[in-house]
Amino acid sequence: MKPALVTGASGFLGWHVAQALLRRGIPVRALVRNPKAVSDLDAELAAGDLRDAESVRRAAEGCGLIFHVAADYRLWVPHPQEMYDSNVGGTRNVLEAARRAGAERVVYTSTVGCIGFVPGGLGDECTPVSFADMTGHYKKSKWLAEQAALEAARAGLPVVIVNPTAPAGAHDVKPTPTGRTILDFLRGRMPAYVDTGLNIVDAADAAEGHWLACEHGRPGERYILGSENLTLKQIFDLLSSLAGRPAPRVRLPWSVAFAAAAVDTLRARITGSPPRAPLDAVRMARKKMWVAHAKAERELGFRPAPAATALRHAVEWFQAHGYC
User: Fold this and answer.
1) CB atoms within 10 A of CB 220
2) Which CATH architecture fits 4-172+200-227+290-306?
3) What's the CA gap between 292 and 118, in Å, rounded?
4) Which of these, 34, 35, 173, 193, has the minimum number of CB atoms within 10 Å of its CB?
5) What kind and span of H or E run contains 209?
6) Are strands 105-109 and 65-68 parallel, antiparallel or unpaired?
7) Do the Cβ atoms of 44 and 99 come closer than 8 Å?
C-alpha cells in the first residue's frame, strides 16, 4: 500500500489526521523539519520544509494520498513574510509535488477564516467573501493559499478543500491560539471576555472529516468541518463546569479590548516578545465566526461531537500533561 503524506503531523490537527490514517491501516509519511523532535508518531519521517520545494517533492514521491495540514498559525508575527512563504509558497510547493507524484487525492486544510460570515446568521461555503474581508496576515495568507488550491483543482489536480473551525482537544502541544485561550482560562488569566463567538470542533472529529473528504469529497469543493456555534461567554461557562473554576463575569467593551491590544501589540513590536492579546485577534473578535457544516454532513457523512466534548478533551489533556 502506498503511504499517505501528511504535512504538519508533528502539530495539533496534523497529528490527529495522521492518527486517523494509522487507525485505518494506512502507512503515513510525515514531512517534519526535525525528525529527532518527533517521538510519538508511528510514521515514516521525511525531513524537509514547506519552503524547500525539493524536500517537499522528495517527501511526496510514491505517495498516493496527500494531506496538506501544515500552516504557520499565529495571530502575530514579527516578520509577516515568513508566514506567506510557509502558507502560500509552501502550499504551492505541495500542490506541485502532488502533481509530479501523480497523487490520487489531495486534501488541503484551509480555515474557517476563509468563509464569509453573515451578521446575525450562519455562513457557509457559498457565502460571498473576498480577500478584502480577510483580517490579519494569517487569514490573508490562508486565503491566497486556498486560491492556489482551487486553481490547481481547476487545472485537473484532484484537490478537496476542508475549512476547519476552531479545533480543541487533546495533544495541543504548542498550543494553538484556541488552546491558548483554554489554557489561560485554566490558569486563571481570563478576568473578562468580549462579546464574540466561535464554532468549536474536536480536533479528532476534524481529522475524521479530512478522511471523509478524501473518500467522498468532490475535487474543487470546500467543506466546513465544524460543530457548535457558541459565544465566548458560553465557552467559558462550559470550561467552568468542566474545570471547576469560576467563569469571568465582566464583559469588556470591544473598544477597550482594541485599545489594550493595540498597546500590547506595540510593545511586542518593540521587544519582539509575542503579545498576550494580538491586535488581529481582537479585530477578528468583532464578528461572530458562526458557520453551518451542513454540506459536510450531507456529502461526507460528517458527524462531529458537541463542543463540550472537545473542551473536555482539551481540559483533561492540559491537566494530565502539566500545562496548568
Assistant:
1) 17
2) 3-Layer(aba) Sandwich (3.40)
3) 11
4) 34
5) helix 203-216
6) parallel
7) no
